[in-house]
Amino acid sequence: MSLTPALLTTKLAIPPTRPDLVTRPRLIERLHQARHYKLTLVSAAAGFGKTTLLSMWSQLTPLPVAWVSLDADDNDPARFLAYLIAALRTIHTSIGDAAQELLHSPQLLLQAVVATLINEIAAGRDDFVLVLDDYQSCDDPGIHWTVAFLLDHMPAHMHLVIASRSDPPLPLPRLRARREMLELQTDDLRFTPEETTAFLTRVMGLELSAQDIAALDAHTEGWIAALQLAVLSMQGLSDTAGFIATFTGSHRHIMDYLVEEVVSRQPPDVQSFLLRTAVLDRLCGSLCDAVTGRDDGPAILDQLERANLFLVRLDEGQHWYRYHHLFADALRARLHQTQPSVVGELHRRAAEWHERNGSVETAIGHALAGQDFETAARLIECIVQVKCARGELATSARWLNALPDEFVRARPLLAMYQAQTLLYDGHPDRAEQLLQNAERILQDEAPADHREHMSGRLTALRAVIACVQGRITESLDLARQALERVPAHDAATRGRAVNIMGIALSLQGDVAESGRAFAQALHLGQTTGHIYLTLTAFSNLADAYHMQGRLRQAVETCDRALGFLSERSWQRIPAASAVYLKLADLDYEWNKLDAAERHLTTCLELAEQGGIADVLLNATLTRASLKQAQGDRDDAIAAIQRANELAQRYNPSFTLMAPRLARIWLSLGDIDTAAGTAQTALQQPGSETPDYSREFVDLALARVHLAQDAPDAALQRLERWLEPAESAGRAGSVIEIHLLKALALETQGDTPQALAALHAALSLAEPEGYTRLFLDEGAPMDALLSKATECGAASGYASRLLAAFASHRRPATHAHTLGDTLPVPGSYTLIEPLNDRELQVLSLIADGLSNKEIAREKAYTLSTVKWYVRNIYEKLQVHSRTQAIARARAVGLLG
Question: Is there a contact between 834 and 842 (Cβ–Cβ < 8 Å)?
Fold first, then answer.
């Protein structure tokens, strides 16, 4: 039994056409224009003659035509690419040598394969056409990305034609806008009245009145398949006019009724053959005999073709056929209705035939359809490692998800791959149960050396699960156990174990040790050529540097990752998304918002393509922060909503997610939602034990307290983290704690201590160029920096930050950040004007003075100042100093 997936040459042949078809010159002429477009899209529902039209045109065009007839088995990027290359080689035998070699490498990298293939195509000069028929069979994001990438970089002498039952998720709007696409839609493909007449009279030989033809044309609305079914149903009827008069209903009802009539009019042996072979996607004589238990398969197929009974020939040798899709659907429905007990046996016979003939993947499909799960599990176990090694993960996941749990649990290898699928889908509990069961089976049944190796692989995956669930100490223990059990030659598994150790250490706040672990994982990834491990380690190492406040070294690490990708033309593989996310975060911190947006866009595209949930979630939160900083409140809120949707699907640690959400809500001026979000994080399991994730929560709550004008509470939360952050070398946290302390102390009226804390933050931040960390604190930080500059207590770095504040102040009609300006509708008016004394107090608040300082400045009592402040809040409809400053600027009370 061969494990190498065989390509069916019949799927590369242009389907032959009958000589008596209705000629369609208006459509042929339009298709002749395909050479002037990148893409020609023929999109219509089943039965509108897409394949027939393209087959007819392929025989008339002077351009060479490569053809692929797609089906559900091709819904995997690697298999799709294999057929695409094979099709191109039917017209240019030199195309695809290098791409095919990459396709069969242990690590499938879509961009590398497609880029290499494009380069090979570009070496040619002669125009040609590639037809992808039945494209709706493919819904894998990797396939859509492959075709989109091909369209973006396709050489001018290549022209792509796609036939599909629906518009595919490709960049069609852009192609339309650039006039790079020719389209034939349902309305174009409908038979015209003239074509209907020609079909009924000349092709089918019916003698119908003009009135009957018009009625039938009106009923079918030019739907070619319905016309064919109607004609078959009318054969032998004396009252054709009466039949046509009652011929009405939806397409589905028409199909069901007419196929019922067609099938019931066939001889019993043909009816039986039709129903029993309906389980097959492709038919040949010996396969039909194996399924039906007869020996007349070739003769019956020949008879059906001559009777034009919805049989489509797939090769010139008349060996392979398929039923028209609509006809097959109807036959299967009738089989399930009338003979449900035989369906499983028919599929099992088909599976046995395909396994004997080396078509293992097709055999798996039939075994699953026939619920022969023992055979399916055995075949999947034979091929799953090969499929995953080649990057055909979508196919493997589809097979494993179709198996009942007991068949997966009984096989440790299948359990391991299924656990990965469950983990990525946000079900770590179920994944861990699978692995625990697999370990029990290995202990009882496996040879010692195999048991130890497999146990190590399972333990490495369980370390990931424990980390995802927040069991950090256990995750570290499991990763170390995995390293003890996995032999040196399995460097990929060892690298994954070291990498998860680094993640667990970083969650404990030990950034130095985590950085060393990521560096070791990076070394293992690079020495083994494991692309996914390498890129994960690169991005994790950059993140460790970021936590240490070493922004420039983090960027250098990301640049090394991009260089690694560029050398191999892999810049746009999904695994690179984490690197682009880190670059976006660093660009944001340096206030390079345009560059951040570019990197973030690339990150989101790649993460969506690969379905990398954790990167998608974090990138969406970064997008919310970026949009808020750019003044786009609506897009920021939309990004928050999208992040919440992703969180429901992926189920991340809320303790890690909540602080980011709280900061964004604060920036948007929604203090209540920010406070609720941060407080909810405190209620998560384990929140009473101080750890690095709790630090994030306390810093978010400190900001909430500042927005609520409660500096004492803010300082209480900040003080507990300064020494641990300094001891662990988390310079990024130390800077953040110092600057928040400065704002809290200034709010208390202790300006000297506030300036001292600000100086500590500036001293650490200046070498690395921190910017947004200060800008995002808004007007209070602006005022404190101004005060530090005026009294000579700040460096030129503070002056540069002040210049950045000045350049980012926005007009009142824009959306604004908390502490800078509050989002206010342009039509906002005060419920009551501020009096002169209130305006004076407001001005001093904007200058950064505390209540005590205002009392000294104006010779008021402290209670009088608080009374004025309360009046200001009520008239401006705000709840804090920062909101008051923002609202006052928005309505023009402050410059």
Answer: yes
